[in-house]
Design goal:
- The protein is α+β, with helices and mostly antiparallel strands.
- The protein has two domains: 54 residues, no CATH class; 120 residues, Glutaredoxin (3-Layer(aba) Sandwich), CATH 3.40.30.
- The protein is 30% helix and 19% strand.
- It is built from five helices and nine strands; from the N terminus they run ββαββαβαβαβββα.
- The strands form two sheets. Strands 3, 4, 5, 6, 7, 8 and 9 form a seven-stranded mixed β-sheet that branches. The chain has a two-stranded antiparallel ribbon with strand order 1-2.
- InterPro entries: Thioredoxin, Thioredoxin-like_sf, Thioredoxin_domain.
- It holds the Pfam family Thioredoxin.
- GO terms for molecular function: enzyme activator activity; protein-disulfide reductase activity.
């Protein structure tokens, strides 16, 4: 096969004469945009990446600001290792801990559902978020192998059978929490 062409059936889908695609800015739309006269790219890919020496898009700045420790967003408090004992282990009510990372797609996917949980269960449950990359001791101690990881704590201990890894729908999240919270009140 000729390296200059990639064939799909009998249609040429790639040609080396196309210039490289270069990421210029961020857009939440996720579409390719036509080139502007000032760029050398044939199309500009939209993503959350920023070129070195350039300011990040406003949405990325807002996201970073919302992830600072102690920040409260949608009823969820982001904590770190130094706050874990007081916020989670010494809490007088159940605490849902969400281990996340800013680069984790499934974490961003379930973020609205977790915010919904924080509002819907605010009388029965505290919701906190822990950044995976900034808290390696907690990650090691609680054996967080996949992201996002959800763990419910009560009376300073992990509730048995409360650990969940990976993205989950809002409906499944509600079923999971109802079952865990019911098991805590019965026990």
């Amino acid at each position: 096969m000729d390296a200059s062409k990639l064939l799909s059936g009998s249609t040429v889908v790639f040609s080396p004469s196309l210039p490289r695609v270069r990421t210029i800015a961020s857009s939440s739309s996720g579409f390719l945009t036509p080139p502007s006269p000032k760029t050398s790219s044939s199309f500009t890919a939209t993503s959350s990446l920023t070129l070195p020496g350039r300011k990040p898009p406003v949405s990325a700045v807002r996201r970073r600001l919302a992830l600072k420790c102690g920040a409260v967003a949608g009823g969820i408090t982001e904590i770190d290792e130094s706050q874990f004992a007081d916020t989670v282990l010494k809490s007088d009510r159940p605490v849902l801990v969400e281990f996340v990372a800013h680069w984790c797609g499934p974490c961003r996917l379930i973020s609205p559902a977790i915010e919904w949980v924080a509002q819907e269960y605010k009388e029965r449950l505290t919701v906190v978020k822990i950044d995976h990359d900034a808290n390696p001791k907690l990650i090691k101690e609680y054996k967080v192998y996949g992201l996002p990881t959800l763990i419910v704590f009560k009376n300073g201990e992990e509730v048995p059978e409360s650990r969940r890894e990976g993205a989950v729908t809002k409906v499944k999240l509600k079923e999971y929490l109802d079952a865990v919270l019911d098991s805590i009140t019965v026990a």
